[in-house]
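Q: What residues go here?
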């Protein structure tokens, strides 16, 4: 499938395996595993993906994780995601995988990582997008859970895992995780954290000053602190913004801060976050950005940012930059 003109991006940096399983697959798997979603049609399940509050959204992620909590299912989900990304024009993606969510449902964290790794490998061999893994811990589960994710990474020896981050509820102070992020860097992992999605500018400040992350997932509430905005710009930290996600969870109502963040000179990337749970893909995100007033030139810069600020190696970035240039010229 050729890439739509308004979605030149060759890379996507912020999406979760837990939010990417096709609805049809989720129903089929739930039926096989005897889970409640197996009683529904795909249409009925899709209608359930509405979130009056952010907590409702997190509860849906939990149910999706329950469906995914078998090694063969994780492998299938990763393989299907690699294929669906390629059909949206994505060549390289950084996918959050949360071993401790699966550990919560009885799997071994390291084996869960290995299962996702196998699925991505198969997807790539079949022509899908290359997917790197960003290890993700659930912030509200605290520092021990985060340490367990790094333990699982060390046990798995998963070379596909190149980054570490936190997602979930943003209430627990990020400063608690300073040692965890230091350990992640010692293990050779890049760092990123969800902050400022539904929390505040101070949370984003903690992400960059205390945890010293290279990118922030969402980070949109930085817009409320002009000095912080300048600091993010001057440090060259990218914000991985997800427009549809923000509207569907109610994190943003009305005008989206992305316009002000770009005007302030911050490097923004665009992503889907949870394409299945938000019923979106990267093409849709770029079309939505256009409707929000971003110019074609700004969209091209966003696509370029998703290469420059990725955690890919330099040779891979060169390859992606060449492909992006061809796509923009084509
Ligand atoms: Zn996210």
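A:
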């Amino acid at each position: 499938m050729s890439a739509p003109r308004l979605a030149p991006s060759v890379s996507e940096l912020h999406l979760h395996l837990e939010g990417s399983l096709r609805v049809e697959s989720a129903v089929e798997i739930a039926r096989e595993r005897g889970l409640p979603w197996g009683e529904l049609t795909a249409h009925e399940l899709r209608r359930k993906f509405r979130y009056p509050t952010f907590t409702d959204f997190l509860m849906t992620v939990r149910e999706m994780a329950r469906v995914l909590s078998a090694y063969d299912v994780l492998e299938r989900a990763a393989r299907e995601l690699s294929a669906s990304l390629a059909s949206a024009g994505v060549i390289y993606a950084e996918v959050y995988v949360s071993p401790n969510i699966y550990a919560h449902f009885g799997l071994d964290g390291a084996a869960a990582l290995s299962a996702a790794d196998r699925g991505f490998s198969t997807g790539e061999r079949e022509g899908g997008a290359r997917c790197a893994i960003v290890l993700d811990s659930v912030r509200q589960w605290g520092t021990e859970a985060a340490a367990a994710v790094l333990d699982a990474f060390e046990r798995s020896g998963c070379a596909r895992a190149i980054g570490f981050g936190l997602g979930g509820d943003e209430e627990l102070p990020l400063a608690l995780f300073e040692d965890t992020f230091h350990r992640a860097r010692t293990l050779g992992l890049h760092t990123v954290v969800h902050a400022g999605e539904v929390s505040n500018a101070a949370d984003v400040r903690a992400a960059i000053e205390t945890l010293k992350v290279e990118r922030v997932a969402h980070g949109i509430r930085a817009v409320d602190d002009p000095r912080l905005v300048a600091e993010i710009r001057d440090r060259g930290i990218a914000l991985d913004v997800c427009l549809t996600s923000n509207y569907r969870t109610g994190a943003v109502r009305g005008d989206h801060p992305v316009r002000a963040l770009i005007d302030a000179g911050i490097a923004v990337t665009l992503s889907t976050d949870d394409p299945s749970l938000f019923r979106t893909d990267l093409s849709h995100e770029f079309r939505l950005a256009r409707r929000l007033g971003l110019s074609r030139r700004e969209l091209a810069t966003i696509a370029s940012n998703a290469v420059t600020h990725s955690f890919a190696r330099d040779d891979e970035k060169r390859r992606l930059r060449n492909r992006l240039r061809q796509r923009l010229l084509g």
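A: Context that may help when evaluating the design: The chain has a mean pLDDT of 94. The chain has 15 helices and eight strands.
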